[in-house]
Amino acid sequence: MSEQSDQDILLRIRGLRIEGMSGDSWQEIVHGVDLDLRKGEVLGLIGESGAGKSTIGLAAMGYARDGCRITGGEILFDGMDLAAAKDSEKRHLWGSRISYVAQSAAAAFNPAHRLIDQFTEAPVQHGLSDKATSEAEARELFARLQLPDPDGIGQRYPHQVSGGQLQRAMTAMAMSCKPDLIIFDEPTTALDVTTQIEVLAAIRDAVEAFGTAAIYITHDLAVVAQMADRIMVLRHGNLVEEGETRSMLADPKETYTQNLLAVRSFKSAEMANPVGEEPLLRVDNVTAAYGKIPVLHGVSVDIHKKRTVAVVGESGSGKSTLARVITGLLPAASGAVSYNGEILPPNYRQRSKDQLRRMQMIYQMPDTALNPRQRIRDIIGRPVAFYLGLSGKQLEDRVRELLSLIELEPDDYIDRLSTELSGGQKQRICIARALAAEPQLIICDEVTSALDQLVAEEILKLLQRLQDELDLSYMFITHDLATVRAIADEVVVMLQGEVVEHGSKTEMFKPPHHDYTDLLLSSVPEMDPDWLDDLLAERAELAKQGRVLKAADH
Amino acid sequence: MNATLKLLASAPWSAKFGIFIILGYAFVAIFAPVLTPYGETEIVGAEFELWGDGFILGTDSLGRDMLTRLIYGARNTIGIAFLTTILAFLLGSVTGFLAAAISGWVDQLLSRVVDVLMAIPALIFGLLVLTIVGTSITNMVLVIAVLESTRVFRLARAVAMGIVVMDYVEAARLRGEGLWWIMSREVLPNALPPLVAEFGLRFCFVFLFISALSFLGLGIQPPTADWGSMVRDNATLITFGDITPLMPAAAIALLTVAVNFVVDWFLHKASGLKE
Amino acid sequence: MSQILKMVAQRFALGFLTLFIVSLIIFLGIELLPGDIAEEILGQSATPETVAAFRKELGLDVPAHIRYFDWLWGMLQGDMGRSLANKREISELIGLRFGNTLFLAVTAAAISVPLALTLGVLAALYRHSFYDRAVNVVTLSSISFPEFFVAYILIFLVSVTFPIFPSIANISDATPFWDKVYKVLLPALTLTLVVVAHMMRMTRAAIINLLASPYIEMANLKGLSRARVIVKHALPNALAPIINVVVINLAYLIVGVVVVEVVFVYPGLGQLMVDSVSKRDLPVVQASAMIFAGTYVLLNLLADILSILTNPRLLHPR
C-alpha cells in the first residue's frame, strides 16, 4: 500500500504480535503482521490451520479470545489504536462500525431470542435507530440476502431456521448498523457446496451494495478469489505474500502460494472398467435403515479390480451409511453385498477372518482412528499378527517395511505414540494399518477432508502410488469434487439415499446431467475470479428456460 | 521414574501438600503398632485425663490413651474405607464397561437398576439396610460398596461409551477382535485417567460416609479405634473448651482435603492434555 | 407446545414410577434377608413364642404383597402404623419432627442459595483472579470436611469460646418463632457451610461453560455493555443449569440434615431415624426412609421439569 492513499485507509495494523496459551506457557502465534485496508475494500486472509488468520481477524477488532493476548503492535481503526483502547471505547465501535460474522451461525445466535430481536439489538443499543425502523430495515436486508419469507423469518428462533439461511441472517445482523468494516470468519466452511454458492452470492451482493469494507477469512483460495479485491497469504503467523487477487492468481511469487494454487491440479490417469470381468465388490440393490428411518433406497455400485470409485454426495446423502453397510456395521435390510462373486454375510460378526481381512477401511478423522495409548509398532503390527500370524523378528520387519511404504522413516516412528504425530502423518499410519492386512479393497471415508489442502494432496498421491504398486481397489467417499477429479476412475452421485447418476469420470464432468449432478458439479468454486459471476449468469439463463438449479436449503 | 519426579516437581503447591499428607497418613497407618505407646484397646488411666506426661493427648471416656487410639484409627478407618472403595470400583467399573461394550438389554437392565438405587439418598438407604441386616463392619463395607458402585458404574459406562464409538474401536471390531481384546487393549487404557481421578473422589465419599455412620454409632463398632466414633464418644469435652475431640475429626478432614487437592490437580492435568 | 406437555407428563409418570419402586424396596427389603427378620432382631436367646408374637406384631404372618399394599395405603392416608419401641403412632412421632427438619432445611437454604449463587457467579466472572483461586482452595477444603467437624468447630467457636449461640437446639412446639430461628441458626449455618461449597463450585462451572459459548462472544462483539451481555444473553440460558444446581443441593441438604441434627440434639426426623436404627425399630425406619427418599425424588423431578420448561428449543419447537 502506498502512503499517498492515507486518506482512504480504514484499518492499519503494524507489527501485530499475538500470544496463545499452550500447555502452561504463553507462545507467540502471530509474529509481527502488517495489514492495510481501504474503505470499501474486501481483503481475503488465507492460510492453512495454524496460520493465525482467525486470530488476526478478531485482533482487527481489538479482541482476543480467552487463552490469547495481543502483545505488540498497533491496530489503527480510523485513527484510533484498538490495541491500546479501553474496553468501553472498543464496545462503542463493535457492532456499530465494525462487526463480526462467525463460522457457525447456529452456535453464534442466542437460542433464547428471536432473530429479529437479535438483529435490532445493536442499532437500538448503540442509539442509532429505534426498534421499529430497525425492524423495517431488517426485512429489507433479509429480502436483499434472498431469505425466504423476509417479513416473517425474523419472528423465528435460531433453531427453527436452516444453516445456510442462518448464515445469511447473521450477515444481515452484522450489517444492521451499516458498519464500515465486517470481519467474515470462514462463514461458509460449515455449509454444503450447493448452499455455499448462495451464501457467497448474498454476502458479496450486500457488501457491494453498501460499500462496506470486509476482511474475509478462509482456508479455500477458490472461495476467496470470488470475494476479495486483495489477498494476504499467511502461514504459521507470518505473512507469506500479498497482492491484488487477479495478479496473485495469475502470477504467485512465493513457492508456498504456488503450491496452494496448484493444489487442485493433481489428476490421475483415468482407467476404463475392464469388459466382461466380474467386479471385485458388487453392491446390489441395497436398502438400509437406522431403526425405522430409511437411509438407503436400492443402491447398487460395482467396484472393479485396481479401480477407484468415488461416491459423491452432501451431508445426509447416505454415502457414509453405504460404507457401513458394505463393511457390515449396519446390516442391510434387503439386497446383497458380494465380494469376488461370493455373497457376504450382512453382519460383520458373521464374516470370516479372511473376508474381513480383504476389505479394509480408512477414516475421516485420523485423530480418532488411532488409539492414543498405543505405539505405532502395535497399531500397525496388530493386523499383521492377527491375520498373518507373524511374530518376533518377522513381525518387526514387516512393520518397518510398511512404514517405508507410506514414506515414514521406520527408525523415527516405530516407537512413537500416535498423539506425537501431525494430522498427515497420522493418516499415513492409518493407511499402513489398512495395508498391513494385505487387502484388495480399501474404503476411504472422507480421508482428506480433515486435512489441510497441501497435506491432503500428498495423501492422495500416496494412495494413487499404492494403488499402482499393490493393485488395490478404492471406494472413495467424499463431498469434495476436487478429490474426485484427482483420483476417481468412476463416479457415483448420491442424493437422499439414492444413486442419482453414475459413470466414468470423463462422462461425469461433461454436462448435461441430472439436475442435482449439475448443481453439485457447478457449485464447486474454481480459482477463476470471474467464476461466481459467470455461474450466476449461467444459472439465471437456465432459469429463464425453466430449469432451476438451486439448493434444497430448507 | 524420572518423568514421574519431574511431573511431581511441576505440581502446584496444593497438590504437593496433598501428596505429602497422603504419604504421611500411609506411614502412620502401616507402622501404627510401632508408633503407639500403648495397646489399641488397653485401659491405661482414669477417664478424660488431661494432656500431659504419659498421655500426650490425654485419655478418652474409658481411660484409653487418645494418641494411641488416634494412630490406630488411621489404620482402621483408612483401611476399611480403602477396601470399600476398591470393592465399589471393581463392581462398578466391570459392570459399567460391560454395559457399554455389550449394550442392548444388558445395558438397559443394569442402568435401570442403578437409576433406582440412585433415586434413594445413599445415607438413608444405608441406614435402612443396616436396620435390616444389623450393624457390623462387614455389613457396612458391603452396603457402602454396593451403593457407591452405582456412581462408579455411571462414570465407567459414560467413559466407555465415549471410547467405544471411536473409530479405532470400530477398526478393531471390523478386524474381528473379540470382546476381551477390545475391552483390555482399546477401552481400558483410555478410560484409566478419568477412573483414577474418580477413585480419589470416591475414596473421599466413602471415607466421609463411614465416618458419618461411625459418628452416628452405626458404623465401626467399639472397641475398634475409629475416628468417627472417637468424636462421638468424647464430644462432651468440647463444651468444656477442650479441643481433643476435634482432633480425630480434623484428621478425617485433612486426609480428604489432601486427596481432593491431588485429584483436582490430576483432573486439571488430564483436561489440559486433551486440549 | 404439546410436545413439551408430553415431556412433562412423561417425567411425572417416571417420577411416580420411581417413587413406587422406591417404596417397594424400602418395604420389601426385609424379604431379601436370608433367615427371619424377627429372629434376627430379637437375637438367639428369644423363645419360639416371643418370636411368633413378634412376627405377628410386624405382620409377617400375612403374605408380603398384602402387607405391602396395606402399608402403602396407610402411608398415603397418613397412617404409618405403630413404633415397635414405644408402641406410639408413628405419624404422631414423625409429624412434628418432619416439620422441624423442614424448618431447619429451609432456614439453611434461605442462607445458602443466595450466598452460593452470588459467590459462584462472581468466581466465574473474575476467573483466574486471586479471589477465584482462593475460593477454589477454600471450597475444595470445605467439601472435604465431615459435617460433624464443621458443626463442632462452630460450637467450639461461637457457643463455648464466645457464648453467642446455644450448642443444643432443643426446640418444641411451644417455642416462639424468633426463638426457634435463633436456636436453629447454628445447625443451619453448619449445613450452609457444607452446601455452599458444593453449590458455588457447580454454579461457577455452569456459568463458565455458558460464557464460553459462541453466542456470548457474539453479544460482546456486537458492542453490548457487559451488564447487558450478562442479563440479556447469559441469564436466560443460565436458568436451566442454575435451577439444576440449586435443586440438587437442596436434595443434598435434606439428607445432610441427619448428622447435623444428631450433633445439635435437634428434634428432627433425622435424629429419630438414627435412634430407630440403633433400636432396630423397623416400622419407624421404613416410614422415615420413605419420607426422605420421597422428598429427594420429588426434588429431582422438579429439577427435571424446570429444566424442560426453561429450554428455548423445547418452548419454541420447529
Oligomer: heterotrimer
Q: Over the alpha carbons, how many angstroms does the gyration radius of chain B reach?
A: 22 Å
Please provide the count of β strands of chain A: 20
* Strand element count of chain B: 0
Fraction of helical residues of chain B:
over 70%
SS-based class of chain A? alpha/beta
Q: Give helix and strand order of chain B, one letter per element, not per position.
A: HHHHHHHHHHH
CATH superfamily of the largest domain in chain A: P-loop containing nucleotide triphosphate hydrolases
Mean pLDDT of chain A: 90
* Cross-sheet strand order for the largest sheet of chain A: 6-7-8-3-9-10
Number of domains of chain A: 3
Rg of chain A is: 26 Å
- Please name the CATH architecture of the domain at 81-271 in chain B: Orthogonal Bundle
Low-confidence segments of chain B, ≥5 residues, pLDDT <50? none
Bin the strand percentage of chain B: under 5%
Poorly predicted parts of chain A: none
What percent strand of chain A? 15-25%
Question: Kindly state the mean pLDDT of chain B as a whole number?
Answer: 87
Describe the structure.
- The complex is a heterotrimer of chains A (554), B (275) and C (318).
- By secondary structure, chain A is an alpha/beta fold.
- Chain A has three domains: 10-258, Rossmann fold (3-Layer(aba) Sandwich), CATH 3.40.50.300; 290-358 and 439-523, Rossmann fold; 372-438.
- In chain A, the strands form four sheets. Chain A has a six-stranded mixed β-sheet with strand order 6-7-8-3-9-10, with helices on both faces. Chain A has a six-stranded mixed β-sheet with strand order 16-17-18-13-19-20, sandwiched between helices.
- In chain A, strand 14 (334-339) and strand 15 (342-343) form a beta hairpin.
- In chain A, helix 4 (115-125) crosses helix 5 (131-144).
- Chain B is mostly helical.
- Chain B has a domain at 81-271: MetI-like (MetI-like fold, Orthogonal Bundle), CATH 1.10.3720.
- Chain C is mostly helical and 318 residues long.
- Chain C has a domain at 105-278.
- Chain C is built from 13 helices and no strands.
- In chain C, helix 1 (2-28) runs antiparallel to helix 12 (282-309) and helix 7 (147-161) packs across helix 10 (226-263).
- Chains B and C meet through helix 5, helix 6, helix 9 and helix 11 of B and helix 1, helix 6, helix 7, helix 10 and helix 11 of C.
